UniProtKB/TrEMBL annotation:
This is 4Fe-4S ferredoxin-type domain-containing protein. It comes from the Bacteria.
Amino acid sequence: MKEGWQTITIHAQAPAKPPTGEVCNGCGVCCAAEPCPVSLALLWPHQMPCRALIWSDTELRYFCGMVTRPAQFLRWLPQGWNAVASRLFKRWIAADTRCDADVEAA
């Protein structure tokens, strides 16, 4: 393996990583390669891929579980706070906006 490279595992049907700056397509490369600020702050122990990375068989893409169902990953979070936490986390990590993963997928 080349120096500075890491191997990540993603679903075989995941879309290809878009170029940096293009619209997010749910490829999952970013969350499989390194933890986001939400993961670093709230999900312990840190692991790669992020344990909140969720594959959708129906949409053939990944979603952030901290955005779609945060109480599942934060057991201390009341279910009634899911919507508020979801909006906060989505904004914090700019989920589903533009690809900001400075990662080259081969």
